[in-house]
Amino acid sequence: MTLLIVIVVLVILALIYISMYNGLQKAKVNTEESWSQIDVQLKRRNDLIPNLVETTKGYAKHEKETLAQVINLRNQLTELPADTHAQKMEVSNQLTDTLKSIFALAEAYPDLKANQEFTKLMEELTNTENKIAYSRQLFNSSAANFNQRLLTFPSNMVAKIHHFTKVDYLEVPTEEKEAPKVSF
């Protein structure tokens, strides 16, 4: 009888262990999948940039430095290894800032603003930027869920046994956290 109780207890413990391990794996896969969503949106943006630069070139001849910077940042982003999340997001943030200055060109060049191709590209890039922001939030939520499992008992013991490691959050650049300076 006691042998049967010991066997039942061991089976229950094994099932609990398997459940915790599978939960950690699912959380890890969700985090990886949410990063892939960011990658997809970054690629989409990178694919739109050459069209935007080409459309803008004819209107903003003296803005070549800005256009060159956009192309340079785009190329940097495509050359970074897939697992360098922090570097990718840093370059992506720089690219976003530079794209904002191209969007501002539309105000200085009414003909450019009236160009349907430019307007369409601006809308697509704006939508893509919104998707990148959403994907970053999803990634951070997935990372939080995974990291929470790494820290809470008893799944933290299973995580240590299988060498699961914490996932870093995607941080907002310091300059974007600051309140905009307004003067009257």
Low-confidence stretches: none
Overall form: rod-shaped
Number of domains: 1
Count the strands?
A: 0
* Rg measurement, Å: 24 Å
H/E element sequence = HHHHHHH
How many DSSP helices?
7
Helix content: over 70%
| Largest pleated sheet | none
Task: Provide the CATH superfamily.
Answer: LemA-like domain
Rounded mean pLDDT is: 86
**The CATH top-level class label:** Mainly Alpha
Q: Which class of secondary structure composition applies to the elements?
A: mainly alpha
The name of the CATH topology is de novo design (two linked rop proteins)
CATH hierarchy: architecture: Up-down Bundle
Oligomer: single chain
Distance between the termini: 84 Å
Indicate the proportion of strand residues. under 5%
In brief:
By secondary structure, this protein is an all-alpha fold. It has 7 helices and no strands.
Task: Characterise this structure.
Belongs to the LemA family. It is found in: Membrane. Its main location: membrane. It holds the Pfam family LemA. The chain has helices at residues 2-57, 64-79, 85-108, 110-114, 116-151, 155-161, 174-177. It is mainly α. The protein has a single domain (1-162), classed as de novo design (two linked rop proteins) (Up-down Bundle). Helix 1 runs antiparallel to helix 2 (64-79) and helix 2 (64-79) packs antiparallel against helix 3 (85-108). The relative contact order is 0.14. The model has no long low-confidence stretch (mean pLDDT 86).
